[in-house]
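S1.2 Input.
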Amino acid sequence: MQIRAGMFHAISRATLAPMIRRTASRFLPVVACLALAACATQAPPPAATATTAPPSQSQPPPLLPPVPQPPERPLAPASVTDPAIPQAQRIDAFVDYTASTYGVDPQMIRAELAQAVFKQNTITAISRPAEAVRPWRDYRPIFLTDARINDGKAFYAANRDALERVAASTGVPAEYIVAIIGVETSYGKITGNTRVLDALYTLAFGWPKRAPFFAGELAQLFALGKDEGIDVSTLTGSYAGAMGWGQFMPSSYRNWAKDGDGDGHRDLIHNTSDVFASIANYFVVHGWQRGGPVVARATRDANAADFVPGSLDPVYPLAALAQRGYRPQPGQPVDKGATLITFDGDAGKEYWLGYRNFYVITRYNHSPMYAMAVHQLAQAIRGGATARASAQ
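S1.3 Output.
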């Protein structure tokens, strides 16, 4: 949701994910220092698996509809983000925009902005996301380490009751909630030490490429402070402005965070019950399918042409992909629609079919490598968590 500390130095953030929806929409129509379907204790309904290749068809089946998504987060207007306008004038416009849109006291906004600090290292870091510079064979080892897997198993065991309550109520498996936290912040150990106000101020007024988004997030930060009674100057997070164990951007926090323990507050910084419920809700809002598969390893026919889908959305019927020479390996799960994912792995090209739930993970961070790392980490954690539960 966000841009997190953990993966961000590798990049992201779902969540940046929501934040990057506009970038991702181009497909279609969010280790460094530091990056959810049934209850984990319940056996999901038997998934259909691949068997034999479907018969060839002369005409490919029509594409499936895209996964419905929540509305886009509002962007700041050009009066705030146009680099041709003097910065002092843009700041005045920002104060007016935030006060009129979210009902925040303009004097408080001005006072906070007056002590915000421009961070050049934020511009440098966000310009080089890990996904842009590493192939899968190098990206995967950042997150699929023995230490991260074992820590995830221990984290699951220590929080089993709370995690499985959320999994049962939302359909998002506990191991995926844990994996998001593991990739984003190493299970809460690395949540970022950049002041969120500074990060968003820097990106809103110093990075024209994404200024409309980040100025919108800066405005949402002030609205979040008003909504939740938070002193925004005290919040720290990633260099892109994501915060908490799940690295939520301010708009994600305001729109999709949940009060997991019923105390009347949504605290994604300290309260793990709120964190678990909020990550699961993020998945649900973006289309998670209870009991649905995530991915399937695929084979490529020897004479198949290269295929790069125009979307991460699972709009291609399996029959259409089979006509192109790509089909799930025998025994792999199947779903109505998928997209083709191609990675450069240790042994060469890897072909995967990304289903609806895979797409949902990419709404947290719009990278197929990020989503696959979360999936594979979740599977590794689930193995240990299931074994521990059986032994108790």
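S1.4 Remarks. DSSP finds 19 helices and seven strands in the chain.
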